[in-house]
Design brief:
This protein is α+β, with helices and mostly antiparallel strands. The chain is built from one helix and twelve strands. Strands 2, 5, 8, 9, 10 and 12 form a six-stranded mixed β-sheet that branches. A four-stranded antiparallel β-sheet has the order 4-3-6-7, with no helix packed on it. The longest helix is centred in the N-terminal third of the chain and has 26 residues.
């Protein structure tokens, strides 16, 4: 019967280590905090997730063909926009000057919503060709929030 107590103690130790790791991991995540300024506006988060070898890459984000921001290493930004359909494009300029359009798609952004779009480097720049609901997005603590930008007067949705 002694071996049963020993096994039980090992299981308790393993469980406590697992819960500790889970607790620490949960503390390293952050949700999106910026909300639309009014019911007739929306927020689009744009983000880039890097790898060490992409430090010198420049990532530019275009909406409807107009450059709106250049994101820093592991950076993300909240864009205040008018609801509607947008062509969203991420363009990467590598350290040698080579340009690459990594992601380009159209999406409808409803009023009074928070949407999220991102590219990440994983053996090459990639990203999903769809928007995520902002309520479902959590970023690891290493991402740098680069602030908010109101582009409601400079970039219009497609007609």
């Amino acid at each position: 019967m002694f071996w049963m107590k020993e096994n039980k103690m090992k299981n308790i130790k393993i469980l406590s280590v697992c819960f500790t790791i889970l607790f620490l991991f949960a503390g390293c995540m952050t949700g999106l905090k910026v909300i639309p300024k009014s019911p007739d506006k929306s927020v689009l988060y744009v983000s880039r997730g890097d790898a060490p070898l992409t430090f010198n890459h420049r990532v530019k984000v275009f909406l409807n063909g107009k450059e709106v921001i250049e994101l820093g290493y592991d950076g993300y930004k909240a864009l205040h926009i008018r609801p509607g359909t947008y062509d969203i494009e991420y363009q990467v300029i590598k350290s040698g000057g080579d340009k690459e359009t990594v992601l380009k798609f159209s999406a409808m952004i409803p009023p009074n919503t928070v949407k999220f779009c991102s590219i990440a480097y994983n053996f090459g720049w990639r990203g999903p060709e769809e928007l995520l609901d902002g309520d479902d997005v959590y970023l690891r603590a290493g991402y740098e929030f680069e602030g908010e930008l109101d582009i409601t007067k400079t970039v219009s949705p497609k007609k």
